[in-house]
Write a structure and sequence with these properties.
This is LuxR family transcriptional regulator. By secondary structure, this protein is mainly alpha-helical. The chain has 39 helices and seven strands. The chain is globular and about 90 Å long.
Length: 770
C-alpha cells in the first residue's frame, strides 16, 4: 500500500545565495525586529536588489537566536497558483494523502510547530501567497512567515521592509571612506573572486565612486559589472559604463529609474556576448529552474548554434556570470538568476521563437519521460527519482505546454503515463490529479492515452480518500480502455479496484482482482506493474486465509525486487510481509521485516511506509510485553501519520488490531504513563524515531530547562519572575503583546509548568544554582 511521500526538508543555506554576505547589517536587524512584532514580514524591492540573499541572512540569524526550525520555499520556478500550497506542503515534508483541501492539511500540521517559513519570489503569485500567508499566521500562532516580493502582499498585520540598494559613496569621498561603503565592498569581493590579483589603490577612487554610483548600489548590477574586472581596469570599466548609460539617459532628464539601471547593465552584458552566446541565453530561458548540458544541446542548438558548440558557449556564459553552475550527485547543472532569465524571455519573444523553443523543450522532456519508463527497472531507480526531482519545474512547464492543443494533450497524457511512478513515489497526489484534469479537458475525443491518465487520477484520489472522484475516474478509465481496446489500461483499472478492496478489507475481491491484473501485466510484459500488484496480491491472499500461499507470493516479490535492484516496491513488499505476520503470523519475523524497511528508508525516503512500519512495530511491542516501547513507537507513528495527512485506521484490516493493542498498553501502564510515553514518542524527530525503532538509541532524557529555553524566552522568564504583566513585559522589551503571549506559552510548555508562579520559582532556583 504505497503512494509515497516527500521528505521533510530541513533548512540549510544555499551556497549560491550566501557565498559572501556584504553589508545589510541594518536591514537584517530591522527584519529581525519586525519578526518579533509581527507574524508576517515582507521584504520588497526591485529585481536584483538582493531580497533573496537578505532573506537567507535573516533566516540564518533567526535560527541561531531562537533554534526555531526554518523552511525556505523558493517560488521563482512555480507558475501555477493552484500548486502553491501543495508545493509548500511538499517542502515541509507533509504528505498529500488526504481528500481535505491542502491548506487544511498544512494548517493542522503546523498548528503545534515553531517555524519560520520563508516564501521567496512571491510577486508572480501575490494573490495566492497573500491568502496562504494570512491563513497560516491566523491559524498557527507559533509560525512566522517571511516573504520576498517586488510588491507587498497586502495582508492585514503585514509589516513591509523595503530593501534599499547598497550604500554608495558620495562624489568627492576620500579613498578611505569610499572603500567602507557596502556597494564598494561587494564590488571588491566579487572582482577579487574572478580576478585574484585585483587590488584597489588610492588612484582608483574617482572611477570607483563613478562606477558604484552608476550601478545605483544594486547588488546584481554590481556583480555583473565585477565580472569585467578580469579584462578591464577599473577606469576602463567605469568609462564603458558611462557610454552605455549615456544611451539610456539620452533625451531624458536626470538619472534612469533603478529598474532601467538594471536593464542597462544586463543590456551591456548582452552586448558583450558573442552571437551564439546571445542565442543560447535567449533559448535557455525556456527552462524553469536548472538544466543540464544534454538538455541544452537538444533544446537550444540549431542554426547559428550547432549542437557540438553548445558546451563551448555554455562555458562562455558561465565566464560572464549569465549562467551559474550547480553540482549534483548526477552531474553539473546550470541556471540563471530570475532577472537574467526574464531578460532572455524578452529577447526570445522579440525573435518570435518562443513557440518553437517551448515545443522543443516539451519534446526533450517527453523523450526523457519515455526513457524513464523503459529504464525504471533496468537502472538506478534512486538516480532517476533524484533526476525528476531536479526536473520537476521543467516537467511542469512541459505539461503546461501540452494543455494548449488537443494534439499536444495526447503527448502530455503519454508523459503522465510514462512518469507515473514519480507522482506515486513523491506523493504528489493533488498535482498529479490536476494535470490529468487539465490534459483530459484539452484532449479530443477517442484518445487512447486518456484511459491511463484516468486510472492514475483514480488511484491518486483513492489514496487521498476521495472515493467519489476515485469511482468516477475508474469508471471512465474502464470505458475508455474498452472503447480503445487497451488491455494494459484495463489491467491497471483492475489493479486500482483491487487496491480499493484491500483498503476496504474485502480480501476475496482484492485477491481475485489482483490475480487477474497480474496475469494481464505479465501478458503485456509490464514487470513494474507486476511487482506493484504482486506484493499487494500476497497480502490480500494471506489475509483472505491462505497464509502459506500469501507468504510464498510475498517472499517471491521481495526476492524479485532484490534481484532487480528495485528499491521502492521492495520496501512495500517487506512491509506487506511484516503486516501480514503482525496480523496473523510470527511477530519476530514481522519485526525483522520492519527493520529492513526502516534501513531501506534511508535510501528511499518514504514517510508513508515509515508511518506504517512504526505502527506495526508498536503492535509487535504491545503483543510481546513491552508496553513502554509500544507507547513510544505508537506516538512516533502517529506524528508521522499527522504529517502525511492520513491515519492507519483508514485501512480497515488495522482498525480492530490497533484498538486492541492500545487497550493492552494502557492497561499495562495506566493512562497517565501511557500518555506520557506516547507524547515522548510524538515529540521525537523522524530520524530519532527510526533509530529508536531499530534499537540503536534510547529516548533522549528530558533536557534541563535552561538548555531548552531560547535566549529571548529566558529573558522573558526572568521578567515574569519580577511580577510584570504580559503588556508590561511587551512595553519594557519593545515587542508586541501577542509575541509575549506566545513566548510565555512556549516557556510553560517547555518547563512542564501550568502557571507563572512555577516559572518564577524556576528562575530563582536556577539563579541559586548558578
Amino acid at each position: 500500500m504505497a503512494d509515497g511521500a516527500g521528505s521533510l526538508s530541513g533548512w540549510s543555506p544555499d551556497p549560491t545565495e550566501v557565498t559572501s554576505y556584504v553589508g545589510r547589517d541594518v536591514e537584517t536587524g530591522e527584519a529581525r525586529r519586525l519578526l518579533e512584532a509581527s507574524s508576517l514580514v515582507t521584504l520588497t524591492g526591485p529585481g536584483g536588489v538582493g531580497k533573496t540573499r537578505l532573506a537567507w541572512r535573516v533566516a540564518a540569524a533567526h535560527r541561531e537566536a531562537t533554534a526555531d526550525e526554518v523552511v525556505f520555499v523558493s517560488l521563482a520556478e512555480l507558475r501555477e497558483p493552484a500548486l502553491l500550497v501543495p508545493t509548500v506542503a511538499n517542502v515541509l515534508g507533509f504528505g498529500d494523502r488526504s481528500a481535505k483541501p491542502a491548506i487544511e492539511v498544512v494548517v493542522e500540521a503546523l498548528q503545534a510547530s515553531r517555524l519560520l517559513l520563508v516564501l521567496d519570489n512571491c510577486e508572480h503569485l501575490v494573490d495566492s501567497c497573500a491568502w496562504f500567508a494570512d491563513t497560516v499566521v491566523r491559524a498557527c500562532p507559533q509560525v512566522t512567515v517571511l516573504a520576498t516580493s517586488r510588491q507587498s502582499l497586502g495582508v492585514a498585520g503585514e509589516r513591509v521592509l523595503p530593501v534599499p540598494p547598497l550604500a554608495i559613496p558620495e562624489q568627492g569621498d576620500s579613498f578611505e571612506r569610499a572603500v567602507n561603503d557596502e556597494s564598494v565592498r561587494l564590488f571588491v569581493d566579487r572582482a577579487t573572486a574572478v580576478a585574484p590579483s585585483f587590488r584597489l589603490t588610492e588612484s582608483d577612487t574617482e572611477p570607483l565612486i563613478r562606477l558604484c554610483r552608476r550601478l545605483d548600489g544594486l547588488p546584481l548590477a554590481i556583480e555583473l559589472a565585477a565580472v569585467r574586472a578580469r579584462a578591464l581596469s577599473l577606469r576602463q570599466l567605469a568609462d564603458r559604463l558611462d557610454k552605455q548609460f549615456s544611451v539610456l539617459t539620452k533625451d531624458r532628464r536626470g538619472r534612469p529609474e533603478r529598474h532601467e539601471t538594471m536593464r542597462a547593465l544586463i543590456d551591456w552584458s548582452h552586448d558583450l556576448c558573442t552571437g551564439p552566446e546571445r542565442l543560447l541565453w535567449a533559448r535557455a530561458s525556456v527552462f524553469s529552474g536548472s538544466f543540464d548540458l544534454d538538455a541544452a544541446e537538444q533544446v537550444c542548438s540549431g542554426g547559428e548554434l550547432p549542437g557540438e558548440r553548445v558546451l563551448e558557449v555554455v562555458d562562455g556564459l558561465l565566464d560572464k556570470s549569465i549562467l551559474l553552475r550547480e553540482e549534483y550527485p548526477g552531474g553539473v547543472r546550470y541556471r540563471m538568476l530570475e532577472s537574467v532569465r526574464e531578460y532572455g524571455v524578452d529577447r526570445l519573444r522579440e525573435t518570435g521563437g518562443t513557440a518553437d523553443l517551448r515545443k522543443r523543450h516539451r519534446d526533450w522532456f517527453a523523450e526523457l519521460a519515455g526513457r524513464y519508463a523503459t529504464e525504471w527497472l533496468e537502472t538506478d531507480q534512486l538516480a532517476w527519482i533524484g533526476r525528476w526531482r531536479r526536473e520537476h519545474a521543467n516537467l511542469r512547464v512541459a505539461l503546461d505546454h501540452c494543455t494548449g492543443t488537443p494534439e499536444d494533450a495526447v503527448v502530455g497524457l503519454r508523459m503522465l503515463r510514462d512518469v507515473k511512478e514519480f507522482w506515486i513515489v513523491r506523493g504528489l497526489n493533488t498535482e498529479g490529479r490536476m494535470w490529468v484534469r487539465r490534459l483530459d479537458e484539452a484532449a479530443g475525443p477517442g484518445v487512447p492515452e486518456r484511459a491511463h491518465g484516468l486510472w492514475l487520477s483514480g488511484f491518486l484520489a483513492l489514496v487521498q480518500g476521495d472515493m467519489p472522484a476515485h469511482r468516477c475516474m475508474l469508471d471512465r478509465a474502464a470505458a475508455e480502455a474498452e472503447a480503445s481496446g487497451d488491455e494494459l489500461a484495463a489491467a491497471y483499472v483492475l489493479h486500482v479496484r483491487a487496491y480499493a478492496a484491500l483498503i476496504g478489507n474485502d480480501m476475496p475481491e482484492a485477491s481475485r482482482l489482483f490475480g487477474t491484473a497480474i496475469d494481464l501485466f505479465r501478458a503485456h510484459g509490464d514487470e513494474g506493474a507486476d511487482l506493484w500488484a504482486s506484493y499487494n496480491h500476497g497480502l490480500a491472499v494471506w489475509l483472505d486465509g491462505d497464509i502459506d500461499h500469501g507468504r510464498a507470493v510475498l517472499a517471491e516479490a521481495v526476492e524479485r525486487c532484490e534481484r532487480r535492484g528495485e528499491v521502492f516496491w521492495r520496501g512495500w513488499a517487506l512491509w506487506s510481509r511484516a503486516a501480514a505476520e503482525y496480523l496473523q503470523g510470527d511477530l519476530a519475523v514481522a519485526s525483522r521485516c520492519c527493520e529492513q524497511v526502516l534501513r531501506l528508508h534511508e535510501r528511499v525516503d518514504d514517510r508513508v511506509v515509515v508511518g506504517f512500519t512504526l505502527t506495526v512495530l508498536a503492535g509487535c511491542a504491545a503483543r510481546t510485553g513491552r508496553p513502554n516501547r509500544a507507547a513510544i513507537l505508537q506516538g512516533a507513528a502517529m506524528d508521522v501519520w499527522r504529517t502525511v495527512g492520513a491515519w492507519p485506521t483508514r485501512y480497515e484490516a488495522f482498525t480492530e488490531p490497533l484498538q486492541t493493542d492500545t487497550d493492552t498498553v494502557t492497561a499495562a501502564l495506566g493512562w497517565e504513563v501511557a500518555i506520557k510515553e506516547f507524547a515522548d514518542g510524538a515529540a521525537m524527530p523522524i530520524g530519532d524515531a527510526i533509530a529508536y525503532a531499530l534499537e540503536e538509541r534510547s529516548p533522549e532524557p528530558p533536557k534541563q530547562a535552561a538548555q531548552v529555553l531560547t535566549k529571548r524566552e529566558t529573558e522573558i522568564a526572568h521578567v515574569v519572575a519580577e511580577g510584570l504583566t504580559n503588556q508590561e513585559i511587551a512595553d519594557r522589551l519593545g515587542i508586541a503583546r501577542r509575541t509575549v503571549d506566545t513566548h510565555i506559552d512556549h516557556i510553560l510548555t517547555k518547563l512542564g509548568y501550568s502557571n507563572r508562579v512555577q516559572v518564577a520559582t524556576w528562575v530563582t532556583r536556577t539563579a541559586d544554582q548558578a
